[in-house]
Amino acid sequence: MIEASRSRLRLLVFSSVILTALIVWTFHHVLVAVQFSEVTPGHFATAYAAAFLMLAWQVALYVVDRPKQVTPRQQAQLDKLRIAVPIPAYNEDPELLRACLASLLNQTRMPQIIYVVDDGSKDSGAYTAVKGWFMQAAKEAGVHGIWKRKENEGKRHAQGMVFKHLFQQADLFLTTDSDAIFASNAIEELLKPLADPRVQSVAGIVVAENARKNLLTRFTDLLYVTAQLVDRAAMSVMDSVLVNSGPIAVYRAELIWDNLHGYLNETFMGRPVTFSDDSLLTLYARERGRTVQQSSAYVFSAMPENVSHHLRQFLRWMRGSTIRSIWRFRYLPLTGYAYWMHFMRWFQVVLTTVVFVGVFVVVPVRTGHFSFWLLMVPVLVGYAQSLRYLTFTRSDESVWSQLGTFALAPVAMLWSFTVLRIVRLYAMATCAKTGWGTRQKGVEVSLSVKDVVPA
Question: Phi, psi at residue 445, to the nearest 5°?
């Protein structure tokens, strides 16, 4: 179980002020460090100031982000909505799939239909026991359980099979993955923003089920959770979330139906796109209305436990991000906040890359000198943003364990600034390769029961 902490939120605000002051103070030393180089200090100061202003604007937004609340009358209206949950499963660990289904059947707000699609998994008999258990458990819980097997066509077509079958029976579709384990109140919390009819989609927060497995899962959990509670939270305040997370997002059924043909038949440079389904659905939603995040709706998901799987996953995400960025520039309205913030983010990517190369490569090569202060700014910024990671508590993790993960902020920052930056550039250059890229040879992550117990 995950809970928000108000006392931790107050600590976050106080700590952010202190760290911001340290960043400004450190900036002075960075300027001193570059003055003796051939890099023009004025140019560096301009670039740094632009990056700092964008960071300050983002901070101002995400610190005011709060989960949506509803009145009793609004709750009564939400209770009438029919929810269908499509669950594509391909080469999934049976125990992870069972844990996913068990968590959905233990919600404070139950879905009406759970539809499992075995998308041609290589071992057709692997799910026999899980299927038998699920059909009986769903019946006992008053949920309509459906289980079908089909030839492998990818996640989108597995979902499309459900969308077509259940469109007349659902008001909302809750998308998830077969390895996602929902907090007991996740669906109840996720629905609250939909009390506003202008809201077309709602994203939840994904945390790593296996966060304590090894160093990689710890700092990737820190990276991804921070991104959701910082970047996406800032966009949510402006009703302009651009990417929902696949393991937990809800969409209005009409939205999906109206865009189903494009969703199932997206191509890029003449090739079918098999990934980035979450961001495409979010783009459809943003074109139609508001897209938000509900930071009180949590789901556990298994993160890659080895570097190879992690890099392949990130490569796929970044190829999808590149394709989706092109569509956003093409289809988002020029008068909207989402378009210009998307533009500014790409500007920030270019700016930070140039500054990074100039400060960490050009200056040391030309001067033969590297200043310790050059490292302080990204480290402090990393710690400042990662403070959001401490604003919730997990029943399966101690405070000390969470603090240990938070202490890895410099490692996460360094990994993101070097390895993941290179992968991102490679993904941009090879975005025409639209194959899936992961889980082609079988199960890659298994459930560690000791790591999480669904509440």
Answer: -135, 130
Instruction: Give the helix/strand (H/E) hosting 324.
Output: helix 307-331
74-96: b (≥16 Cβ within 10 Å) or e: beeebeebebbbbbbbbbbbbeb
**Residue for token digits 């929810």?**
83
State which residues form the domain around 131: 1-455
Q: Concatenated DSSP letters for 11-33?
A: HHHHHHHHHHHHHHHHHHHHHHH
Name the one residue in this structure whose structure tokens are 């993941």. Answer: 420
Q: What is the pLDDT of residue 357?
A: 76
> Could you tell me the pTM of the whole model?
0.87
pLDDT tier for residue 451 given thresholds of 50, 70 and 90: very low
The structural domain count of the chain equals 1
Between 190 and 10, where is the model more confident?
Answer: 190
Count Cβ atoms below 10 Å from residue 191 Cβ, excluding itself.
Answer: 24
Strands (E), 38-77: none
The CATH number for 165's domain is: 3.90.550.10
Tally: H helices and E strands in the chain: 19, 12
Q: Kindly report, residue by residue over 366-419, the tens digit of the pLDDT.
A: 777 766 666 676 777 778 788 888 888 887 888 889 989 999 998 898 898 889
Percent of the chain with pLDDT over 70: 82
Cβ atoms < 10 Å from Cβ of 13: 10
Which of 51, 50, 53, 48 is CA-nearest to residue 28?
48
